[in-house]
Amino acid sequence: MAGLLGRALDHAMSADPGFEYQHVISINPGLAGHGYSPVKARTYLDAMVGRLAAVAGVESVSLALTPPLGNGSIGAGIGINGREVNVQINRVDPEFFQTMKIPLLRGRNLLSGEEHAVVISESFARGAWPGQDPLGKKFALDGDYAVVGIVRSARLIKPEDSDSVEVYLPIQTADLPSTSVMVRTSIPPEDAARSAVAIGRALAPDSFPEAQLLKNALRRKLQSAEYSALVVSLLGSIAHLLACLGIVGVVAYAVSQRTKEIGLRMALGAQPSQVLSVVLRQFLIPVAAGLIVGVAGAAGLSQLLRGQLYGISNLDPTTYLVAIAIFIVTVVVSALLPARRAL
């Protein structure tokens, strides 16, 4: 378990999440909390997007109902060909994919004002219609939607979930009071965030827009994984130490019980390696059985960690092989220390 979490954390810090977040800012104007109607929210957002686009260093501005790397998410199960596919749903405007640098692989982008078009991730297309052309396929959500485009898979909402697939719907008028503004900038995002907040307050003095750097949001998400890995590693180390102490005690007891037999064997010309083999052979089967049961138990329990593994498999072979190697080495050392008495 500790090995899986450690590998997942290392993978999360080095792997490409499918989108570029280092220079992106998420601004939550908080319009819904101030009682904005959809029409009033549209006026505010149009003005904010226009002013932000005019700021030096701003490359792209877009809207999203669920900002990437935020705390909120919208999940649903979609029935396709008699089976259910769990997806993460986001409502975005046509500029969103440019802002997040998510390339369009096939088909076309969403169009402003569309209601029943949908862009899906490559992972969703591969899982829902394997070996088929997803373009034009329809499925039911809160209505009937037709697939018009396929984009690169990007774990925007749950970067830790390797099974996450995404569906992008057009933003509807009713969504506008709860919508966030995404800004890509070529200047330091900290400077752009201050400018964005100032623009938001200038448009509505009674509002308090909140700006978040996506690189900081990802760091906060990784912190929980760091704490989990640390706690599990500590517990695993304690359990490993106790197991080693138990092996030392058992082998020492076995040696003490067989001292006369060992002496006779050596007096009759037995080699040290033969003596050690006699002492340690009786522990081979219990240790091997314990290792098999432990690996099987870890594989079963690792299913609970699938949502925290940041893109690696819960049956990652490298992790299991390293863990087995460490266990074997420590068991051998723990057994040899008291077994030396046999010589």
In short:
It is built from nine helices and eleven strands.
Structure keywords:
343 residues, alpha+beta, 9 helices, elongated, 7-stranded mixed beta sheet, 47% helix, 18% strand, 11 strands, 4-stranded antiparallel beta sheet, single chain
Tell me what you see in this structure.
With 343 residues, the protein is of the alpha+beta class. 47% of the residues lie in helices and 18% in strands. It has 9 helices and 11 strands. The strands form 2 sheets. Strands 3, 4, 5, 6, 7, 8 and 9 form a 7-stranded mixed sheet that branches. The chain has a 4-stranded antiparallel sheet with strand order 2-10-1-11. It is elongated. The two termini are 38 Å apart. The mean pLDDT is 81.
Number of strand elements: 11
CA-based gyration radius: 29 Å
Q: What proportion of the residues form beta strands (DSSP E)?
A: 15-25%
- What general outline do the C-alpha atoms trace? elongated
Class derived from helix and strand content: alpha+beta
Average predicted confidence as pLDDT: 81
Distance between the termini: 38 Å
The ordered H/E elements are HEHEEEHEEHEEEEHEHHHH
Portion in helices: 40-55%
Question: How many separate helices?
Answer: 9
Largest sheet, in brief, is: 7 strands, mixed
Low-pLDDT runs: none
Write the layout of secondary structure elements.
Elements: H1 2-14, E1 24-28, H2 38-53, E2 58-64, E3 75-80, E4 83-92, H3 96-100, E5 104-107, E6 117-121, H4 122-128, E7 138-140, E8 144-151, E9 166-170, E10 180-185, H5 189-203, E11 210-213, H6 214-257, H7 259-267, H8 272-301, H9 317-339
Parallel strand pairs: 4-9, 6-8
Antiparallel strand pairs: 1-10, 1-11, 2-10, 3-4, 5-8, 6-9, 7-8
